[in-house]
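Lab notebook, bench 4. Still working through the backlog of constructs that have no structural model yet. Next entry is a single chain of 85 residues. Request: give me the structure tokens for it.
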Amino acid sequence: MAKVPSPCIDVCKFKRAGHCIGCSMTKAQKSLFKELKKDKHRLAFIDMLRSQQADLGKYTHWDAAYAKKLKKKKIKLVWDKDKAA
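Model written out:
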């Protein structure tokens, strides 16, 4: 099975107080995600990121864009952090 892909959706414009307008990650968070090797840690990061998106607002597009990326890579994720990809 492929590892959990980055939540980046290839927009990469840091115009919202240092947060990307595509995925809400900061540059530091993007670097941190790349260092995560275990899927459980990557899933936990994505759970954190989804909470961050909800707090920041204006990220309703991300779920669909990330789902499209996963489908292209033929990866099925369960959003519950206790379940594996």
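Notes after review: Helices lie at 27-35, 39-56, 62-72. The chain is about 45% helix and 0% strand. Flag for follow-up if needed.
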